[in-house]
Design brief:
Helices cover 47% and strands 0% of the residues. It is mainly alpha-helical.
């Protein structure tokens, strides 16, 4: 009897969590790049001495 109750309770709580996640309003909105950067609080300026768009490989100058 207790095993059925434990299974029903755990599965019921998982179903409730899934239900609440699926019906969130922010799942229907995808923020733009500018909004994500503002929320992150960081600017995308390159460090001094680096050109934007280029990746420097560690340990090599070639």
């Amino acid at each position: 009897m207790l095993d059925y109750f434990a299974l029903a309770l755990s599965h019921g709580l998982l179903a409730l969590a899934c239900w609440r996640l699926l019906w969130r309003d922010d799942l229907d909105q995808e923020p733009g790049r500018e909004q994500r950067e503002q929320e992150a609080g960081r600017d995308r300026q390159p460090a001094a001495g680096q050109r934007p768009g280029l990746r420097q490989e560690p340990g090599g100058d070639a």
